[in-house]
């Protein structure tokens, strides 16, 4: 349980609507003793309130502690000591909302985890495959190569390829299937 140190006694403040000569009523606010009693009596219930709003115990405890610290700092503004508990409850709710907002924002800002890096051998093997594919592509007929590049590397539909090359859709299909067959043969052949 934290210890709430008493503040040095301050001069009594005058209410703004008081006139000179009227009874000098003092706005004392919530006292440290009253706040300490409220802490002892209601800490667990406030912790339960925070637990309903948050999901982990550490955050709940932090929120309730922060609420008491804020009320302690602003105890002069809580003029009616009977409203101290209500002020604490509202502070716990607001701090819980803020904690959830920060958590959600943190999850949004977290970068996606990096995929496992390939080993140097895998990278070299992929480079060899890429080089052999490029060599096999160079061995294709011009139209076969154009169709395969536009269809699979430029990610165009067959209709788009036909329009781009100015040939019929049937020709695109024929060049594409013949080009893939020729690539398979070239890639399977020993180097």
From TrEMBL:
Domain (RNA polymerase sigma-70 region): give its ranges. 39-103
Q: Where is the composition biased (Low complexity)?
A: 1-16
Give every RNA polymerase sigma factor 70 region 4 type domain span. 131-183
For the region Disordered, give the residue spans.
1-20
Q: Which UniProt keywords apply?
A: DNA-binding, Sigma factor, Transcription, Transcription regulation
SUPFAM superfamilies named among the record's database cross-references: Sigma2 domain of RNA polymerase sigma factors, Sigma3 and sigma4 domains of RNA polymerase sigma factors
Question: Could you name the domain of life of the organism this protein comes from?
Answer: Bacteria
Q: Name one Pfam family in it.
A: Sigma70_r2
Instruction: Supply the InterPro entries for this chain.
Output: RNA_pol_sigma-70-like, RNA_pol_sigma-70_dom, RNA_pol_sigma-E_actinobac, RNA_pol_sigma70_r2, RNA_pol_sigma70_r4_t2, RNA_pol_sigma_r2, RNA_pol_sigma_r3/r4-like, WH-like_DNA-bd_sf
Q: Which NCBIfam families has this protein been placed in?
A: SigE-fam_strep, sigma70-ECF
Recorded family membership? Belongs to the sigma-70 factor family. ECF subfamily.
**What is this protein identified as?**
SigE family RNA polymerase sigma factor
State the organism named in the record: Streptomyces composti
């Amino acid at each position: 349980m934290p210890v709430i140190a008493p503040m040095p006694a301050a001069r009594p403040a005058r209410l703004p609507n008081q006139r000179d000569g009227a009874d000098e009523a003092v706005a004392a606010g919530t006292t440290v003793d009253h706040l300490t009693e409220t802490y002892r009596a209601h800490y667990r219930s406030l912790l339960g309130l925070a637990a309903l709003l948050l999901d982990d115990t550490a955050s709940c405890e932090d929120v309730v502690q922060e609420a008491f610290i804020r009320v302690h700092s602003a105890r002069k503004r809580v003029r009616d000591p009977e409203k101290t508990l209500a002020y604490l409850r509202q502070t716990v709710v607001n701090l819980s909302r803020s904690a959830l907002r920060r958590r959600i924002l943190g999850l949004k800002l977290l970068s996606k985890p990096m995929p496992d890096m390939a080993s140097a051998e895998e990278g070299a093997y992929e480079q060899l495959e890429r080089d052999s594919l490029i060599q096999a592509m160079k061995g294709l007929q011009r139209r076969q190569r154009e169709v395969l590049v536009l269809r699979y590397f430029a990610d165009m539909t067959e209709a788009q390829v036909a329009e781009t090359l100015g040939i019929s859709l049937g020709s695109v299909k024929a060049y594409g299937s013949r080009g893939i067959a020729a690539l398979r043969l070239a890639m399977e052949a020993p180097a």
